[in-house]
Amino acid sequence: MEEIQEEREYGRWEWFFYMIVIPALFASLLGGVLLSLLGVNVLGNVLHWANSIPYVEKLVPDEYDLVSDAEKEELDKEKQVAALQQDQAKNQQQISALKEEAAKKDATIQALQKQVQDLNKLMEKQRATEEERQKQFADLAKVYTTMSAKNAAAIIENLSLEESVTVMTKMKPNERADILAKMDPKKAADISILLKDSVVNKNDDIAALQERVQVLTKALSETRSGASAGASDQTLSDTFAQMPAEDSAAVIRSLMTTNKSRALELLKGMPADKRAQTLSAIAKVDKKEKDNMAARITEELLR
């Protein structure tokens, strides 16, 4: 005999539990999972909300993290970007300072070059004037030698000592002797002493100009060589710092065999972290080739 069982109706609380509570919990759980996948810190927000309820706040911890892992990663990236931007700004400042210094040195070089050119022109002009002056004295000496010794002596006695000596240096010794013999003994003695000690040179202005040109040329050479060497070494050091450690290590190893001092200068000019990476790469090659170049370089850098 078949027994027909009637479907039992749910009670009020059973209906509330099965129809409302369980679906609500399931929906909350599913929503929390979805929000977590989207980067929302669901647990942290729930704890924050629970911590604001009286009495319940005692049951939840005070310390909790409202930042999700994705947000933490994003914050770390932002910090890294800010640090890189700050480093870039510093590098730009250093580049600007180096450019400004190079511009100043270029201006100094140009100014020195202009001074040298101006002084060379002035010296050429003075030289031409002096050559003309010496020619005039030589022509005057020829005129005096065509006169009688007595007349030439009378004229030369009325010249200044400097002019007298300059004119007579253009004469032959026998011509000078004849004219001096006809002069006043005191004047002849003074001219004789000056003739003995005199050396015909360009005037003092030309000598001073020559000395000044030499000083300026030396300063120009030192400025140019200093600017070229300093900029070149620093530029090479910056280039090595931007290269991969393995590539810079290969170049440094090659330089150590051909130009040891230059290799050490380049390493000293690199940042400390890049220098350490390069030495580490050299040490790796040392292990393969059974060499000890990294240790030798370190000893040289510590001196």
TrEMBL record:
InterPro entries per record: Mg_transptr_MgtE_intracell_dom, MgtE_N_sf
Which segments cross the bilayer? 15-38
- State one Pfam family annotation: MgtE_N
Q: Does the keyword Transmembrane apply?
A: yes
Coiled-coil boundaries: 67-132
Arranged from A to Z, the UniProt key words for this protein are: Coiled coil, Membrane, Transmembrane, Transmembrane helix
Residues of the Magnesium transporter MgtE intracellular domain: 119-195
Protein name per its UniProtKB record? Magnesium transporter MgtE intracellular domain-containing protein
Annotated organism of origin:
Brevibacillus gelatini
Q: What is the lineage of its organism?
A: Bacteria, Bacillati, Bacillota, Bacilli, Bacillales
